[in-house]
Amino acid sequence: MGKNYVDIEKDSGETLRYRKHVNGRGLVAHGAKVHPTAVVETGAYVEPGAQIAAGVHIHHGAWVESDAVIGPEADIAAHAHIGPHAVIGARAKIGVRTHIGDHAVVAPGALLGDDESVQDGERIATDKRGLHLAA
C-alpha cells in the first residue's frame, strides 16, 4: 500500500507535507481544513490555513492558496487559482484558468467565466447569467 502523503520542497527550502484527500486524491497541506464531503481532484492543491466547506468541488490543477476560504457547494474549475486570503461565497462558480487575487471576495452564487481575473482586494458579484453587478 502506497503512502497517503507527499512532501514538497518550496523554493525557500522549507518542506511542506500534503496528504491525499479522501475524495479525489488531490493534495491538502498540513494545517488546511477540508470538509469530508468536499472533492479535491488529483492535481489540485490546497495550501496551509485554507478552509474548504461542505460540498465544494475543486477540479484538476486548481490551486487554493494559504488562508483562502471556500464556501459551501462552491465549484472551482480546472487550473483556477484562488489567491491567499481570498473568500469565495457559497455556491459560487469559478471558471477554468480564472485567477482570484489576494484578499479578493467573490459573492455567494457568483458565476465567473473562464480566463477571468479578479484583482487583489476586489469584491465581485454577478447575476445568474454571470453579468457583473455594481459592488
UniProtKB/TrEMBL annotation:
Organism superkingdom: Bacteria
The keyword Acyltransferase belongs to this UniProt entry's keyword annotation: yes
Matches recorded under InterPro entries: GMPPB_C, LpxD, Trimer_LpxA-like_sf
Any one Gene Ontology molecular-function term assigned to this protein's record: transferase activity
Keywords: Acyltransferase, Lipid A biosynthesis, Lipid biosynthesis, Lipid metabolism, Transferase
Gene3D superfamilies hit by this protein: Hexapeptide repeat proteins
Domain Mannose-1-phosphate guanyltransferase C-terminal stretches: 33-114
The protein's name in its UniProt record: Transferase
Species this protein is from: Microbacterium candidum
Lineage: Bacteria, Bacillati, Actinomycetota, Actinomycetes, Micrococcales
